[in-house]
Amino acid sequence: MLLGKGRTLRFLCAIALLAVHKGATEQSEDDSIRMLSTSSNLNVIQGSTVLLPCNVLNLDRKVRIWKHLPSRILFSGTISVSRDAKIHLVNGSSLRIDDITPQYAGEYVCLISHHHFLNVTHRIQVLVSPSIEQEPPNGKAVVRKGNQATITCNVSGIPKPVVTWTHEHNGVQSPQLPSGVRQVLGGAQLQIASVDVHHAGVYRCTADNDVGEPAGAVFSFTVLYAPELTVKPEWIHGGEGATVEFMCTCHSAPPSHITWVKGDPKQDTPLQANDRIKLREKLTVPTTTESWLKLTRLRKEDLGSYACVAKNQVGQSFKMVELSGLAEPVQLRGDETGETSFLLTWTAKSYSPIIEYQLKIRRHKSDDEWTDVMIPVSEEGLKQSMFFSHSYNVTGLEPGTRYEVVLQAHNDYGWNRPSETLIFSAGSPPVTEPVEDSTEPTGLPLYDIELDITDPTYLIQGSSRIFHSYPLMYICFLIGLWIL
């Protein structure tokens, strides 16, 4: 009995010794397995190929397991689990990804079977060069003046691209956007609350994230608007046999059709070119048209108003000019001065003879009434041609007092526009002050061209004394004319 128990004990001890030996052997084998590759963070440009190493020492019968975290198993040993055509196992260890795209970004881990503490992790960020989707897709924006407008560069890329804009107008490019243009959506969209002419041009959007080449988009921005006109000159003096020319500049989009009309601009009969009427038109830039009206060998019936009429699909407008037989405004100047006097000289251009002049004078910057001095023209003066020169010596001035004076000329067609105001004082050089309104200066009447110059009251001679008293009838007559 004791012998049997001894044999059993020796057997169990032998088994225990074998188990200990086997465990020690396995522990020794586990201690010899080593991960040689190290973890990495990789930035990879889209479309590239990336190789992820998993080199292990003393792998023996263990296998590598490749995962795309969080849970996608790619390979178990050499067996492909994902069946992804872009992912390959190289030399039974490294993972290769071809033509990489953003969906392959993330963490890739290589584990050793039964020894998960032995692993290597590779983190991949896929870099994508910038791209742009523009709105409108054709890059052409056509907007009426006063309306709202937006143009958009929908950008994509990793990392997120930075968007910049430039504006080009009439061939001049600027990094500054026009006033009234607002950038929103991180700069990707331009908004205009009320479109104006200066917003037209070419807008360029550029997206850049330092990956590959920057992306760009071009927008052609067209502003449609009705004709806007300027004419030069607005008034011109003419007479029989003379040649005159008017110029009309039209800004509009689309370009306008321009016609010239005599008299009422609403009438449907535009002027036609002939041997005396010359018409010329020129498109200088896409939105500017210039038109010229030239009248030669003038006749009396040619005098009057003319209109430059422009029309496009947005609207129509006109601008009036005047061809007048009235003398041009007098060029008034002072040549000599005395202690109490001042000599005025002037030249008036007129195709018909100057009949007389009217001088209006008062203290400078005062509320005094204008004093009128009628200056007749001698027989010799009537014989002058085109340029009529005259002079008048103003006397009775108060020393040290400044005066202001304007002059008008009268020919067969009536009184012309007043001259610029001449400011002077006895013994000092004169100063010329422009008329505030060339058609109706403050406080100065423009006489009716049908004024009856045979009226005996009207023909009262002027005086060299500036505060000379005029008959009551003459003053009343002038006031009546001014009211008319």
SSE inventory with pairings:
Blueprint: H1 2-32, E1 34-35, E2 40-45, E3 50-52, E4 56-57, E5 64-68, E6 72-76, E7 79-80, E8 87-90, E9 94-97, E10 106-112, E11 115-135, E12 140-144, E13 149-158, E14 162-169, E15 172-174, E16 181-184, E17 189-192, E18 201-208, E19 215-232, E20 235-237, E21 244-253, E22 257-262, E23 277-285, E24 288-295, E25 304-311, E26 316-324, E27 331-337, E28 342-350, E29 356-363, E30 371-376, H2 379-382, E31 386-394, E32 403-411, E33 414-415, E34 421-424, E35 431-433, H3 472-483
Parallel strand pairs: 2-11, 12-19, 20-26
Antiparallel strand pairs: 1-4, 3-9, 5-6, 5-10, 6-7, 8-9, 10-11, 11-13, 13-17, 14-15, 14-18, 16-17, 18-19, 19-21, 21-24, 22-25, 23-24, 25-26, 27-28, 28-31, 29-30, 29-32, 32-33, 32-34, 34-35
Protein name: Hemicentin-1 like protein
InterPro entries: Cell_Adh-Cytoskel_Orgn (IPR050958), FN3_dom (IPR003961), FN3_sf (IPR036116), Ig-like_dom (IPR007110), Ig-like_dom_sf (IPR036179), Ig-like_fold (IPR013783), Ig_I-set (IPR013098), Ig_sub (IPR003599)
GO molecular function: axon guidance receptor activity
